[in-house]
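Worked example 2:
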Amino acid sequence: MAILEKRRALGFGACALASSLWGCGFFFGKLALAEMGFAHMVLYRFLFAIVVLLPLLVTHRPRLNRREWGLLLVASFLGVPLQFLIQFYALSITTVSHASLMVGTMPVILAVGAAAFAHERMDWVGWAALAGSTCGAALIALGGGLHVKGGATLVGDALVVVSLMIALFWILFNKQLMERHSHVVVTAYGLALGTAMLMIWVPVRYGFPPVAGISVKAWLALAASGVLCTATTTLLWNWGMTQVPASQAGVLLLGERLGPSAWVGGGLILASAITLTTRSKTRVRADLVVSS
């Protein structure tokens, strides 16, 4: 029992660290967006991530069957090109602070998704957290106003939440695959497939990414977002998800100056996330544990 509790605590720690690094990706992304379009920024981010994942692709051979390859392909499409292109287009029309606060809704989105699709039961505390997080997100989004001088927008904030809902299925599909395969295989090959999709779609739709005229600061931001906020984050998150219920993972990070409604909304989201991850008694259904 002590070993299980220790692994559970380490799982929560891995998910918390991953979430914090993920939030930093908005800051690094905003730096790169000053010098290139959102689609090119996302492509470069994943190319940097794949560079550090290449050794894992060589040393960890996949043992997936045909159905599992199909599931990984769908998960990669949802989790890489679809999620990130929407998310960083949203960042281009909102602020880092608002985008990062919206990421705080992820624990509650995960809780609802796990209850609906992964057979985890959410108690009344979880449902109360859902209500609080929803109200908090609404306060942040409605307080965004018009997009003036790099300010926040309702559309941008809403698209961040849409990208998180897409990420929900990426996470749940990965969790299903990790019941039979290592988190390293699922992470490395999933990101590699997603990056290959980006390499095809981005040049066709948005043109080839710029190379000349990019500052050292932007390249460093792209490298940090790829290595720290993508490769490292996804490895940590996927390992953590093998140790804890899907409905109890996540934290948030915030940055810039916020309005009163955003502070109140952020407080609601943070309180909801903490309540959900520390007080809720969500468990996987016993009958499914026995059957598996």
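The radius of gyration is 19 Å. Residues 22-278 form one domain.
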